Amino acid sequence: MNIVVEFFVVTFKVLWAFVLAAARWLVRPKEKSVAGQVCLITGAGSGLGRLFALEFARRRALLVLWDINTQSNEETAGMVRHIYRDLEAADAAALQAGNGEEEILPHCNLQVFTYTCDVGKRENVYLTAERVRKEVGEVSVLVNNAGVVSGHHLLECPDELIERTMMVNCHAHFWTTKAFLPTMLEINHGHIVTVASSLGLFSTAGVEDYCASKFGVVGFHESLSHELKAAEKDGIKTTLVCPYLVDTGMFRGCRISIFHVCSSALSLTLIMLCHADVHLLKLI
């Protein structure tokens, strides 16, 4: 008898989930404001990480950029500062035109901070995270974006590259989340964004280590989402992004069947159009 009751309860919950999903598709949720919030992006020196940084800058977030390549990271920071200057100039022009402060986005102390960090090394992550807390403050939005690909078939891939792929693409998410989640839990506020891959949902030949790392991080994110829900920490949001192969350099020239890699700019546009409060799986 209990089994029958449980069957109908589960069926009802599944159908209700479809109803809620349809409602959210028709009535889009209000776009989240990140103005003035501290947003940390890993792998910000190039590719999607750089595009994320520029988009968050346009939305007036205070940015903390991590990358293993100092020069590339500083180049991204320079682009961000240029956006900040344009925003401040636009605000000043609007005030002079007499539009009224109520029509202007809230004034924030727009700054960008850069840190050279190898997210594949646990101690490096924890030490850099402590520096961020002391020099910037607590992180409100954590974007785990850093990733690498070895580009070798399994038997041709050195063990060191396999280990490196797993550390950067998967294990790093554990270290960064453990570094910044405790404060989010204390104040019941924050947002963790996991940039995975469509290859974390299905696999293809020649990228065994990459697929394994992305499958792992998808599982990590889903389990973390359930853990936060069970703890009733509804102020901490999670977003899982699974883009198709993006033309950021790692997959240039790659194709699966008839599909080529996707433009990084197009991928970012579609990602930013998806406003999911709790959980997002998006194939682009």
From TrEMBL:
Source organism superkingdom: Eukaryota
Compartment list: Endoplasmic reticulum membrane; Microsome membrane
Location (main, coarse): endoplasmic reticulum
Associated pathway: Cofactor metabolism; retinol metabolism
Top-tier EC class: oxidoreductase
Keyword NADP attached: yes
CDD domains reported in the protein's UniProt record: 17beta-HSDXI-like_SDR_c
Transmembrane segments: 7-27, 33-53
Enzyme Commission number(s): 1.1.1.300
Protein name: Retinol dehydrogenase 10
Lineage of source species: Eukaryota, Metazoa, Chordata, Craniata, Vertebrata
